[in-house]
Every structure is written in structure tokens, then in C-alpha cells.
Design brief:
This protein is 47% helix and 13% strand. The chain contains 15 helices and twelve strands. A four-stranded antiparallel beta sheet has the order 5-6-3-7, sandwiched between helices. The protein has a three-stranded mixed beta sheet with strand order 2-1-4. A three-stranded antiparallel beta sheet has the order 8-9-10. The termini are far apart. The relative contact order is 0.13. It is of the alpha+beta class and 377 residues long. A hairpin with a 2-residue loop joins β8 and β9.
């Protein structure tokens, strides 16, 4: 069967890419400058093997940590959605259940529920010993070897892909994963702020290491990059109660000695993917002191509460809330309240409301019955 990508397939990827991106400037230009012609050009460039990723935009974010992120052009994001749609099923079968980041049906909520389940089962709801090993990887995204990830995806496609676009996917794989977005990028950030970003969170123009945080394929690459490591922990070290969310790892066990003995083996295995354990953020402790993971503190009794960082960060957002428009303000406040509701934090919600500036209180009011903000008519 001839490997030709159709307009309909790229149009489907375009619609997936368009979700929640309609107000972006790059999206507006692509859509309004003859969208059909733009999509046809993408189809032709893929089928003629002339497609090349365009220059990325570089931004700096301050939360949860100061770091560089790179945003691909809208046309490149369409290609990424097409690529992931084709490889998603074989990638899912390659990953273990404990790998929770950026996967359908999983995420932070799933990871936290899994952790609660492991703690309750291991401790028998507080009746037995229960320990945890918390591992953090230093500068994870910027230490990923792009070529190594590209080769892993190529092998995965060669061995397990059964669709009609194998040759196209093998052509796209190095273009997507080996591309260095720092080359010729456009900086969309304050230079003084960018200078404050630690070197370990910057992508080097001359380096083959580092993946663009924010790209759909980068999230998939970060999962596949450590898939062999995940399986090694679960199968070889027999530490079955294992959860990973990007570079945050937690392992639950009833034996502290087993966790201690596993550390040198874990460090050695991480070297295969050029990863370094962050010693300052790695710890072994009893779960009865609370397990910090993804913004929550989890306990063996099945109880979870928000961490201090979440409380401080949320209240800071309330203090800095600015009035742009009534609809914008309503969306922002309700988004943050929705975030707090999943932590069951009634006191924190009340504190958040009290921290809002007076000018915000004159525009929106909080409905206690529905637990959300509404417009003041």
C-alpha cells in the first residue's frame, strides 16, 4: 500500500490542535491566511519529504520554577498531533501503569489515587510499617538525549506499528525529536528575566540534549525515555508499588532496607539515559510522616491534604489578580477554585477569597452553594 498522507488526516490533526488555541496569534494567522491552502502545503511537504520544522518561540515561566519553554509554530503542532495520533496506541502498550503523565485516563489525579491505594494496602490502614522512597531527577527535560529518544521511537515504529504510514512516521521521527528548538528561536521574554534562569533549565544551541517542554511529542518522549527504567524498577528490583509523573518518582514498600539497597542500582540504571538523581530532593522516610507528591501530602490512613507550596502559590495568585474583563476574571477565579476543590480545602478556599483585591470583589461574588464565582449583575 502506497504511503500517502491524505488531506482528511491532516485536517483531523488540525482540529485536534485547534482546541483551546483559537485566540493565539500563530493560530489566527494560520487559520485566516487561507487555511485550506496552508493544510494542503503541509500535506504536500509530508508526501514529498520536504517538511522541516519552523523556528520556535522561547518563553520564560516562573511557576512552579523559573525555566525556559519553547513553543512550536502552529503548523508544526498540527504535524505533532498527526504523529501522536498514529503512534499513541503502540506507545501506550509500551508504558507501565505507574507512568501517569500526559496519558489518556491518567494524570495527577490518577497518580494521587494510585499512591493513596498503595499506602492504604501496604500499611493496612495504619496497622503495619510503610515506607516510601521519593526520587527527583535533576533538570530532567534538559538532560534528555534527543537522538536516543528518536532511536527508541524509530525502533518502536519498526517493530510494532501496523498502520499504513510507517515510512512517513520513520521520516518524521528524527525531524521531530532531534530538532533543537533553541536554534534560531525567537525570544518572547524579558532578557533580564531570562538571564536568571539556571543553566540546568536552559537548552544549549550546540547540544544534542534537551526537549522542548510544552510540545505534545516532548511529553511522549519523556515517557518513552524512561520506560525501560520503569520496567527495571518494577520487574527486576521487584518494587511493584511504583509511580512516576514526568521526573517525580515515588516507590512504596513495607521494607525500608529494600528501598535503601535499591538506591545504588537505581542511580546506575539512570546513567543509561544520562539522568542524575537530585540528592537534595530524594529521601526515604516512613509514610506516617506524610508522602509529598504532586502538591499533596498523602498518609497511610487514606487521608490527603494540600502541601504548603500549593497554599502559598494559590494565595499569591489571589493577591496578584488583575481586572482585565469580567469574563476573564470569572474564568480565572473559577479555574483556581476548581483546582482547590479537588484538595477538599474549605479553609484554603475561604482564605483564597479573603486574599482577593477589593476591585475584584466588586466585579464577582462567591456562591457558597455552588462553590464558584458568579458575575455581580
Amino acid at each position: 500500500m502506497e504511503d500517502k498522507i491524505s488531506f482528511e488526516e491532516i485536517y483531523e490533526a488540525y482540529n485536534l490542535c485547534l482546541k483551546n488555541k483559537k485566540r493565539k496569534l500563530g493560530t489566527y494567522k494560520f487559520v485566516n491566511d487561507n487555511v485550506c491552502a496552508n493544510l494542503m502545503n503541509l500535506v504536500d511537504s509530508l508526501n514529498n519529504r520536504t517538511y522541516m520544522p519552523r523556528t520556535s518561540n522561547c518563553y520564560v515561566i516562573t511557576e512552579p520554577a523559573l525555566r525556559e519553554i519553547y513553543a512550536a509554530q502552529f503548523s508544526d503542532r498540527v504535524i505533532q498531533h498527526f504523529y501522536m495520533k498514529e503512534v499513541e496506541n503502540i506507545l501506550e502498550r509500551e508504558l507501565i501503569d505507574g507512568c501517569c503523565s500526559c496519558r489518556k485516563g491518567k494524570g495527577t489525579g490518577y497518580a494521587l489515587e494510585l499512591l493513596k491505594k498503595y499506602l492504604v494496602e501496604t500499611s493496612n490502614r495504619g496497622k503495619r510499617d510503610c515506607f516510601y522512597l521519593k526520587i527527583d531527577l535533576s533538570g530532567y527535560f534538559m538532560s534528555i538525549n534527543r537522538k536516543q529518544v528518536s532511536e527508541k521511537f524509530s525502533r518502536l515504529i519498526e517493530e510494532k506499528y501496523k498502520g499504513k504510514h510507517k515510512e512517513s512516521l520513520l521520516y518524521l521521527t528524527p525531524l521531530i525529536f532531534e530538532n533543537n528548538p533553541a536554534l534560531n528561536c525567537k525570544y518572547k521574554c524579558n532578557e533580564k528575566v531570562r538571564e536568571k534562569v539556571p543553566e540546568r533549565r536552559k537548552m544549549k544551541k550546540e547540544s544534542s540534549y534537551g526537549m522542548a517542554i510544552g510540545n505534545l511529542t516532548a511529553q511522549a518522549g519523556s515517557n518513552l525515555n524512561l520506560s525501560e527504567f520503569d520496567k527495571y524498577i518494577v520487574n527486576n528490583l521487584c518494587l511493584k508499588l511504583y509511580i512516576r509523573y514526568v521526573d517525580d518518582i515515588v516507590i512504596v514498600s513495607d521494607s525500608k532496607e529494600k528501598l535503601i539497597n535499591a538506591i545504588p542500582l537505581i542511580v546506575k540504571k539512570l546513567e543509561e539515559t544520562h539522568q542524575v538523581m537530585n540528592v537534595k530532593k530524594t529521601k526515604i522516610d516512613t509514610a506516617y510522616h506524610g508522602v509529598p507528591f504532586l502538591g499533596k501530602i498523602s498518609y497511610p490512613y487514606g487521608y490527603q491534604k494540600a502541601s504548603k507550596k500549593v497554599i502559598i502559590r494559590t494565595c499569591q495568585k489571589a493577591e496578584k489578580m488583575e481586572y482585565i474583563s469580567q469574563d476573564n476574571l470569572l474564568a480565572k477565579t473559577n479555574s483556581q477554585i476548581g483546582y482547590l476543590k479537588k484538595y477538599n480545602c474549605k479553609k484554603l478556599i475561604a482564605h483564597y477569597i479573603s486574599m482577593l483585591p477589593k476591585k475584584v470583589e466588586r466585579v464577582v461574588r462567591f456562591d457558597n452553594d455552588e462553590c464558584k464565582f458568579k458575575k455581580i449583575l
